[in-house]
Amino acid sequence: MLQNDSKQTGSAQKNGCQPANHMIDMAQEHRHALFAKLPENSAVLVSSGHEQIRNRDVEFPFRAESDFFYLTGFSEPDSVLLLLKTSRNQSVLFVRPRDPEQETWQGRRLGVEMAPAILKIDQAWSIEEMDEHVAEYLENIENLYFSFGQMATWMEPVEQWLSTLKSKVRRGVSAPTQLCDLDTITHEMRLFKSDAEVALMREAARISVEGHLAAMRSVAAGKYEFQVQADLEATFMQHGSQKVAFNSIVASGDNACILHYTENSDQMGRHQLVLVDAGAEFRGYAGDITTTFPVSGRFSEEQKSLYELVYQAQQTAIDCIKPGVCYSEPHQKVIEILTTGLVELGLLNGDVQALIKEEAYRAFFMHGTGHWLGMDVHDVGSYKINGDWREFEPGMVVTVEPGLYVDPGLDDVEERWKGIGIRIEDDILVTDSGSEVLTKGLPRTVEAIEQWMSENNPNV
Known about the structure:
Blueprint: H1 6-15, H2 21-37, E1 42-47, E2 53-55, E3 58-59, H3 66-72, E4 80-85, E5 89-95, H4 100-106, H5 115-119, E6 123-126, H6 130-137, E7 143-146, H7 151-166, E8 178-181, H8 183-191, H9 195-218, H10 225-238, E9 243-244, E10 249-252, E11 273-278, E12 280-282, E13 285-286, E14 289-294, H11 301-319, H12 329-345, H13 352-357, E15 384-385, E16 388-389, E17 397-400, E18 403-405, E19 421-423, E20 426-430, E21 435-437, H14 446-456
């Protein structure tokens, strides 16, 4: 539609805030799908969120709330989407108005006038007029949906709108009587990726792989972790990702035993392993990879033994993912393999099944084997249905990330094992016939890693 209106297209490009056409089309399809799931006489409210102050006059980089971007393809702050399912479906957007003075300081805005054509919505208003117009739109609406996860954001304005509508009862106006959690619908929708979304996730995965390869090329004894982070994230940007999907982890030595270590401030020792957990975000969709490799290019015997155990567990877990398999099954396989291996290596003592029952492995493996992946790195979607672990279905994307962490403070562990932290993570798409590793292209076995680093890292 935009290509047929050269004046509007040119203005939008000059405005600098026009979203990509395919993202707009995808968001429109998502709105249509949501409308189909809503009961008649319903309204939906979704906010993009607000800029947050980092310190003084400096804001954190803004990212629109995922549900909002999923339904609009638009990422400006202080915007609200209102969907109305009545005798006809309507999409209404409240946005920041054009303001030359503010735009000189803070950047260009799409504005009210251009929003309907650019974003393929029915009506746009200034966010400054939201209270007035939303109250009008909600007249005689029965069901009002918003995210209960953002209850604090919505309750004050919703209370105000309901009060306004109830004051009109003698005019025959009714207010919504049902406040409903939008998450139960949109989060289940987001769990199943369309072909278009899978294409974006493939690209996020490809860029993430390139970043991890850059990190493997970058490591060197005496180098700081944040310098490796710089090479990793620069590669993300060079390959088309404007931002990371989450705070990058570059953890050398026993820092790898801290699961969400993000200081990235230590110097790397020659005989240490480096654990890198990082992912690129591409057009709103996340990649998530963890690699573990030696600074020297060669694993010690202890590092090799633990790495091979984690790798075996990861590959076994990936191999069992397919439609109809219970979500918890990969995790159970990982626990069995890791516990058996820990006994064989002397890090645990006793009967394997008894150790599993008493969760003795948690001293070394204290997290789950994976999580949903999509617009959020820990993506939305229920893991259980009616109290039971759900089964994998085509279109789901899940990470598989077993690990072993031998904290230096553990008692009854030989010194040679202490301080070793290992995690291996890939992104897995559930297909009609099985599964597909999206994050392919990394050396994963001990032999492949050592050979790759000897050929590509000049510092080893």
